[in-house]
Amino acid sequence: MGIIDLFKKKGNVNNILKEGLNDEKRDMIRGVVDLSDTAVKEVMIPRIDVDFLALDTPSDEILDRISESGHSRFPVYDESIDNVIGILYVKDIIKLLTKNQKIELDKIVRRAFFVPESKRIDALLAEFKRRHVHIAVAVDEYGGVSGIVCMEDIIEEIVGDIQDEFDNEGEDITEIASGVWLCDARVDLDDLAETIKSDDLPVDEFETLGGFVFDLFGKIPAKYEKTAWNDYDFIVQDMDGHKVKTVKIVHNKNSTQN
Description:
Blueprint: H1 3-10, H2 13-18, H3 23-34, H4 40-43, E1 45-46, E2 53-54, H5 59-69, E3 73-78, E4 80-89, H6 90-98, H7 105-108, E5 114-116, H8 121-131, E6 135-139, E7 145-150, H9 151-159, E8 173-177, E9 180-184, H10 189-196, H11 209-217, E10 226-229, E11 232-240, E12 243-251
Parallel strand pairs: 2-3, 5-6
Antiparallel strand pairs: 1-7, 3-4, 6-7, 8-9, 9-12, 10-11, 11-12
């Protein structure tokens, strides 16, 4: 019996939370219980923020991507991102390099584990344990790839955000001048709307600033490229390959745009 079932069977979560627990332990218990009410879609890394590798990516570029990102696993696709053929484990690349062997992705990628984005993460956690894997590819109702979810994402739901040496510990949204913000493209659009006091941002259509900005440009933007929306300018400050990394937002207070 898992800890979630134990709490539910005894019906004593509230009693446990009333006991002399510190805030950290209390939040952890709430996180465990909330797993059964949370879908993969709510914790996954959305497709636009995932570092995918094409099957025909040259070896030098693969090594550069590994070095720059710090990731230990990469979804690999053939022709289309909706056709993920497997997961590249960086440790498998390292084994080849130590033996001076050629990198051939089609021979070293491991089978991908696909899950519906509606799957509850307590059930996914059990699947991870049973299959001895730490990453899954999330798919939407039409079979398209919508993102990835890792063991770390689930653990963060229980114990809070996990920082490692590759994480950015700075603020996601920083006001650098009056009406000017520097933002991580992964910032939640709801949080951004609240910070810049905009009621018009399409929070029901996009989860992240990066997704919204891509839609505004209608293409992969270039560094320092600018686009306007309502009375705001969105300027790409930093790119990571084809992915928007940092965006500067400027509020044009005297704008007469609709």
